[in-house]
## 1
Amino acid sequence: MPADPVPVLQKLFGFPDFRGVQRQVVDRVLAGQSTLAVMPTGAGKSLTYQLPATMLDGTCIVVSPLIALMHDQLRAAEAVGIRAATLTSVDENKAETRGRFLDGALDLLYVAPERASTADFRDLLDRGRVALFAIDEAHCVSEWGHDFRPDYRLLRPLLDRYEDVPRLALTATADEHTRADILEQLGIGTDGMIVAGFDRPNIRYSISTRDNTTRQIADLIRETPGPGIVYAQTRAGTEKLAEALRTATGRPVRAYHAGLDPEVRRRNQAKFVESEDMVIVATVAFGMGIDKPDVRFVAHAGLPKSIEAYYQETGRAGRDGDPSVAHLFWGAEDFARARQRIAEVDPQRQPGERARLNALGALVETAGCRRRILLAHFGEDPPAQCGNCDNCLSPPAAIDATETARKYLSAVFRTGQSFGSTYIEEVLTGKSSERSLMNGHEALSVWNIVDGDERALLKPVGRALLLRDALRTNPHGGLEFGPGARALIKGEDTLSLVVPPKRERRRRGGDAT
Ligand code: ADP
Ligand code: ZN
């Protein structure tokens, strides 16, 4: 019968109670059962191995992918009086640390996967006593995961060498496929998986297409007092957007990216953590390890890398439980660029990357509840309506745009699959130019076959065709057919468009005064 962990939780960590699934995970670990814990960021994963490490006989070996992360964790553990050490290339006290391990004087020993899989490390463990293997960021072991690290694959022989030592794999970011893979790769039984609830009910999710990034995000900032994070795609993009938003809103806005002088970066981050109204425009590097509970909004100026990344980034809003906003602005070119990038990765990884992108496509394209799609992605079965996302609050209309999509594809085909969207629209609406005359395109059957209200559908249809890979952009910006084109042309597939409810009512009201 394992000892009661609650007194240790209270005395050592100073928390009155376990949160969420922590208790379940800790109980399994104390009972010597291998476990995969899937818990969102901020749910308190570290405690699930730190606490048992202090109760069990022997040392808990923590495999972690980043030295900086290890040193943060080390400081936090030592601060509550846990006996911990790191064994990394930058540590100068490696001999001392080995000694402490062999003396049984360490609760936690942090190590990177590439060191954990060496013969040296195995020999060290053979001579000491291991209580638990904790594998942090365990999705790194899976090629399906968004952050595959081959070194994680080398861990298995070490784990198998100590058959009686339980394994605890931890991750915040795993879809079902990745989870199954983690279990298999690390040799954990399927009944050993514990998944925490992922819902963040106080976050309102909104997603719209991008027409003017600065104006759209400035509107959001004006509507949302309190601190916020805006994620931009590139370093240069963060600085430009920060400048534009500062001018447009009058709020304190700063940029943050890895290319900034470390001193400036530290200062901007510190200012943000203290501030009650500052907006930080950042690359995705920003936010890891920042504990600011009162972030009121997270905006994305472009498509995130995956649903996992989106969930993690938006999850930095509203940790205090108060109402908060997550707004994503996307464009068709985000999908076109992502597909180009996928074409360049290792062919073995392409199916996983493509599935990840398609999941994002479904999220941005849906007329249904955003939260439902997010939570279903994490294996939950939420209600059909959440009542706190853009689509639940003002349901969009869906219209059948299959006919327009066929015309669009036809125009791309007949003009030789080499022109961009602007030209295709000109052909379809019969907008004569020197170019169309020279190309002889005015004689084509697709010339001037779209008029009236249908014209307004051309842009969203073009976007939808790119998103579902019916069209692709070549390196010169020309459109060509992708694998999704055929079924649409042959009438085996349809395309419905989501028409957002009338936008900008507030804006027109503003103009009138
Ligand atoms: P994760 O690794 O899952 O992102 P952390 O382990 O960094 O999360 O924990 C997030 C925060 O929650 C930390 O500040 C931690 O001290 C706090 N925390 C963890 N467990 C509890 C608990 N049972 N009660 C209150 N706070 C907790
Ligand atoms: Zn909803």
## 2
Amino acid sequence: MDTIANAITIERAKTSKIDQVDFNNLAFGKVLTDHMLVCDYKNGAWETPKVVPYQPITLDPSAKIFHYGQSVFEGMKAYKDSEENVWLFRPLDNHKRINISSKRLAIPEIPEDYFMEGLKALLKVDEQWIPTSEGSSLYIRPFIFATGTGFHASPADEYKMIIACAPSGSYFAGKVKVLIEETYSRSANGGVGFAKAGGNYAGQFYPTQLAVEKGYNQVIWTDDNTHEYIEEAGAMNIFIRINDTLITSPTSDRILDGITRKSIIEIAKDENIPVEVRKITVSEVVEASKNGSLKEMFGAGTAAVISPISGFGYRNEEYDLPELENSYAALLKKRITDIQYNKVEDKFGWRYKL
Ligand code: PLP
Ligand code: COI
């Protein structure tokens, strides 16, 4: 571990943009910090990561990322507590997942110490960019893409990992309305839906645009085979509360194994909330909405945190969700963010000190 940590080089930016940033009014992922981590894969091995000033990169037009979409990414956050200590949340799970994604896209896996020590070196250099304003954090975006060249449709021989960071506020500006989709599919059995592959998101943009034109913020994807089962949303996993029970779909080939999702399942169980990880049909949710047993729906993800859903559309009908006084969404959001911002003891061992 020590060797790579000591080998990482740091080139500091000559000037900082930080004074131009309004930390009390942060959008999501718009302003990037002064530095980034770069790590290249060449000649069959990852080279030593470098912290460099944030800057554009130059790529050969035949780089395979442009033609064949070999690219994966992660989403993480760094949180500052009231004493200015910096925390990550389950970062080793992000490292594991980027390798799961990479493997599926025939991208070489990045060793844990390169990822973690590189990330830590970057965060130390850009530490003053981690916001302290309520509800804000430093969004961290590690990504790996094919820089190797040529039009042959086969895996590249060179790759680049970059970790870039953006001090960020909420992902959604207001209430979240979702459209339950049954024409388009996000993923299929045997496909890449479980991976954080760039192309999964590109494929969602057109159907999501159509939904946005109709007044929705996100699409809830159903299974590609029957379109009868709720799977996940474009940028978050989905939880549904019917009466007192919290339900979420099992992960599969088609669904991202969200770190927030699995944490929420554990916290909910700890709160003695009945949790069911099972397939749930759209008709069950529609029926529950009609008979009043559908109490809440919310999305869970790193960017989305816990985002309550105010209503959903399905087959040209609108279904509103009640506004609850004591929602599971509010309770679970408080519990998870209290752990992330080091406001409470972390009995699960999820917090990771920088
Ligand atoms: N599902 C999709 C498609 C996502 O992009 C994300 C975001 O990362 C999630 C779910 C939530 O995953 P996590 O909680 O690990 O951020
Ligand atoms: C995240 O929550 O970190 C994600 O990667 C979702 C993204 C599409 C913003």
